[in-house]
Amino acid sequence: MTVPFSEPEERVALREAVRKLASKYGREYVERQAREGGKMTEMWLEMGRNGFLGVNIPEEFGGGGGGMSDLAAVLEEASAAGAPLLMMVVSPAICGSIITRCGTEEQKRRWLPSIADGTHLMAFGITEADAGSNSHKITTTANRDGDGWVLNGQKTFISGVDEADSVLIVSRTEDAKTGKLKPALFVVPTDAAGFTRQPIPMGWSAPEKQFTLFLDNVRVPGDALVGDEDGGLWQLFAGLNPERIMGAALSNGMARFALEKAVAYAKDRAVWQDQPIGAHQGIAHPLAKVKIELEQSRLLQQKAAALYDAGDDFAAGEYANMAKYAGGEVACNASDVAVHTHGGNGLTVEYGLANLLVAARLGRIAPVSREMILNFVAMHSLGLPKSY
Ligand SMILES: Cc1cc2nc3c(=O)[nH]c(=O)nc-3n(C[C@H](O)[C@H](O)[C@H](O)COP(=O)(O)OP(=O)(O)OC[C@H]3O[C@@H](n4cnc5c(N)ncnc54)[C@H](O)[C@@H]3O)c2cc1C
């Protein structure tokens, strides 16, 4: 019997396989790597070897030939096992999607197979300090120089640059320096002359670090430009809708992890008579509420990914935003409830939940903030006046 809303058998099997691999590493591995300044490399490469990082990349370029629904399922499961791979949002989802949809045949052959198996990590840089949420204000500029380009500018909060082989930099050309953003996207190797980085000391503990980037007369060849220099915003959104869907998947997985831990603890911990604390509605109801919010949020994630995979970019944009909003909210609520259910243990290193409070908070800020999503929904879904 086919049950509406159930996933195809292959994706269910994919989820199980990822869960099995990610559970070998789990929360303990992530916390240890974060504490000791390590990376997620071992798990990342094992995920790559098993074909999990490139499930969305076309088969002819070394991937699994699936879609964003599959990649989001992979990240959700890794995250639910306590080992969220932040760089999956960036390398296969944003960069892989943009190159697949906008790259030349040669660019696809050069980058996609190694993005798919995890041996080439591509970071993504759009955020600038003076532009913030308003990407139309970015000033990183690309000038033509013979057959190539010269890039100048600064980026901030760019994740994983210390681990990356290259960064997909969002710039604007000299000819389109002002007005609405016409993005020109360049693959810049992290060892390019004139390209430097400075770590940003962050108040959360994670293996993935954030950096300020400086591009000082960085020369790249003509074929570093992915897509058309005048191709319009759709080229960027070929990557940003996947980014939002993956942001939702990461958050939903995190919420599942937190809820699972909390429920297990609530069933076990007894401080009054023989009743476990989960018998008290003060503990049970917040957990039940998170369960409902989580199911709503996962449905939005699946709908957004299905729309993207069906090629309906317009509807995918609307649902990717709503899914990302819902994911951010439920991850924050779930981690808060999980910490609270654990009492004092919720803030110990041993239970691995305290750090999750801050990690979950990221889902309300990046890649696009909660308020910018509400602005989008108010304007585009509800037809209200533009507020900014
Ligand atoms: C851990 C981490 C990793 C990141 N990784 C990357 C990365 O790899 N690559 C990359 O390019 N960027 C990355 N970012 C940047 C991230 O995308 C931005 O932080 C985010 O887009 C918000 O921009 P901002 O920080 O400049 O906030 P601001 O734009 O300064 O906003 C500050 C606050 O004001 C609110 N606000 C702004 N405008 C409005 C408005 N019109 N209406 C209502 N409220 C508004 C916002 O919602 C927010 O709460 C990362 C950020 C973090 C924290």
Automatic annotation (TrEMBL):
One of its GO terms (molecular function) is oxidoreductase activity. Residues 9-118 form the Acyl-CoA dehydrogenase/oxidase N-terminal domain. Pfam families: Acyl-CoA_dh_1, Acyl-CoA_dh_M, Acyl-CoA_dh_N. Keywords: FAD, Flavoprotein, Oxidoreductase. Belongs to the acyl-CoA dehydrogenase family. PANTHER family: DEHYDROGENASE, PUTATIVE (AFU_ORTHOLOGUE AFUA_7G06510)-RELATED, MEDIUM-CHAIN SPECIFIC ACYL-COA DEHYDROGENASE, MITOCHONDRIAL-RELATED. This is Acyl-CoA dehydrogenase family protein.
